[in-house]
Amino acid sequence: MDATPPDHQRKDIVIPTLEELNLIRHHAHDEDLRLVMEMMSGCGLRNGEAHATNVNGLVSQDVYRINDQIHGRQRVPAPLCIRRVCFRVLHQVRAGYLLTNGGRGGAGVGGSPYYSGNTFRHKWQKVLRAAGITAGYTMYSLRHFFASHCLAMGIPITDVAEWMGHKSIEVTYRSYRHLMPSSIGRAAKLLDTGI
Fold it and tell me: Taking a C-beta distance cutoff of 8 angstroms, is the pair 21, 28 a contact?
């Protein structure tokens, strides 16, 4: 009897290769889009977290602390992973935010100085077309790139889960288990030799 590793391939996650990411970077000339791309692919940030990139988040030379996100349609800074926003703090540009659209395309809905997610999605699609990439990558694919790269480099899934901001390691495991097939393959081989 042969033990074969199960197929953990998730069909809903598409991850660019490093070569594709470098090609996308080469065609991304908008500095704000490039910053969002680097924060997502290099730190694993969610879209709203990357949109809230703030110089005050740098707590040491190699540590960036995430304190908030730009929240949804209202486009306001809000605590991480919130369900409701207190609108009394609307539309003031707080100190340190790097991605504000003041003077570059207008204030938009309700006078918010922050970019909408649609603005970055539009820029992203233009860059993919310019790079000739037809795969179904979304900006969130950059976050998947970060996680897959970490796991491929042997970083423990517990650390990756913490960096990704997942509520539990189970979320990380369900999403990225298929990226660690070597451990299942090794276990299958060990079981084969012992049976």
Answer: no
Strand partners, 54: 97
What is the SS3 assignment for 44? coil
Q: How many residues does the chain have?
A: 195
Closest CA to 51 of 63, 36, 64, 65: 36
CA distance linking residue 142 with residue 41, whole number of Å: 5
What are the backbone angles phi and psi of residue 103, rounded to the nearest 5°?
Answer: 80, -5
Distance CA 102, CA 129 (A): 27
Cα–Cα dist 44/109, whole Å: 28
| pLDDT per residue rounded down to tens, the chain (195 residues) | 555 554 554 557 889 999 999 999 999 999 999 999 999 999 999 998 898 888 888 888 888 888 888 877 778 787 776 444 444 444 444 678 888 875 344 444 456 788 888 889 999 999 999 999 999 999 999 999 999 999 888 899 999 998 888 888 998 888 888 776 566 566 677 677 766
Q: Domain locations in the chain?
A: 1-16+136-195, 18-134
Task: Please give the C-alpha separations between residue 96 and each of 19, 39, 40, 143, in angstroms, as whole numbers.
Answer: 32, 16, 19, 23
